[in-house]
Amino acid sequence: MRPILRGPLIGHLVRKPLRAAVSENRIVLDKWVPYRNENATVQFRVIGFPHAAGNAFFYRSWRKYTPPDLDFCPVELPGHGQRIDEMPFTDLGALASILQVILAPLLTVPFAFFGHSTGACIAFEAARMLRAADERSATHLFVSGRPAPGHAGAGRSIRSLSDQDLLAVLIRYGGTPAVVMERTELMAAILPALRADLALVESHRLFEGTRLSCPITVFSGADDTIDNASLQAWRDFTAETIRVQMFSGDHFYLSEAGEALIGEMAKEVRRPATLLAPRPTGAAI
Predict the structure, then answer these.
(1) Is 193 within 8 Å of 201 (Cβ atoms)?
(2) What is the mean pLDDT of residues 89-103?
(3) Is 160 annotated in the active site?
(4) Which of 72-76, 172-176, 273-277 has the lowest mean pLDDT?
(5) pLDDT digits (tens, 9 = 90+) for 184-193
(6) What's the CA gap between 145 and 224, in Å, rounded?
(7) Is the distance from CB of 153 to CB of 227 less than 8 angstroms?
(8) Using CB atoms within 10 A of its CB, is residue 243 exposed (0-12), middle (13-18) or buried (19+)?
(9) Domains by residue range for the chain, with CATH
(10) What is the DSSP string of 187-227?
(11) Looking at 23, 61, 97, 117, which residue is catalytic?
(12) Are 62 and 50 within 8 A, CB to CB?
C-alpha cells in the first residue's frame, strides 16, 4: 500500500462536502496520531516522532505523566506499528509536506516537536517547515539521542546495507525487545521500516545557514556513543538558545526516563516568551 494522503487524495478531502471531509480528515488523523487529547484544557502540544523502526505505542505510556494543559502526541508513520502494511517514506521533504496537511488540526495551540534518534531529524524538519494556519511556527524543538546535522559521521549508503547489516544496527543501539529479536517473522516485518527510516535521514539535506527561530533542548544518555561536541553543535541550527540535558543510560535511556522527559518538556513549553529572547549563539540556560 502507498502512504496515505499523497497527491490527489489531499485535494479529494478538501473538495468533499464539509461534513464528509471532516469525518475523513478525522479518520486520517486517527491513523497518524492515534494517541492525542483534544480537550479544551490543552494549552500546549508536543508532537513526537519515533526512533528508527519505532512506533507510537512505544511512547504511549508517557501520556500518563502529562499535566492537563499539555498534550504529548506520538506520530504513527506509514510502515510502522499499526500501519506496518503501508509503504514507509524514504524522502524527508515529501514526509514534511504530508505532515503539514495531516497535523494542521493539532497546531491550533502553541506546539513543539520531539524526536529520538532518527526521529530527531524528522522533528527538526517539522520545526523548520510546518506552520499553523495563522503562520505560527514551533515554539520549541526537543531532540534526543542524535548528533547535530553534519556530525553523525559518514557511513555506508543505506542501499548497500544487507539485512544482516541492519540487524547489527538494531543490536548495537538496543531498544528492540529480545522477544522480537528472537522471532524471524517479526524481524522480517521490522527491517523494511528500519531501512526506510535510515534512508529518510540519509535524504536530509540542509542549506548553509539553516536556523530555527525557536530554542532547542538536546537530551542524551550519558553512556551513549554520541560525543558532547556533536550534541552542543545543535547550537548552529537555531537563532535562539540551546540546552543539553543528560540522563543516566545508553542510547535508549528514554525507556526509563519518560516521566522526567515529559517534565522537562512541560517546563520548557510553559516558559514565558520574555525569557526566550535571543542570546549569543550557543548560550545555554
Answers:
(1) no
(2) 94
(3) no
(4) 273-277
(5) 777 777 888 8
(6) 8
(7) no
(8) middle
(9) 8-271 (3.40.50.1820)
(10) HHHHHHHHHHHHHHHHT----TT--BSS-EEEEEETTSS--
(11) 117
(12) no
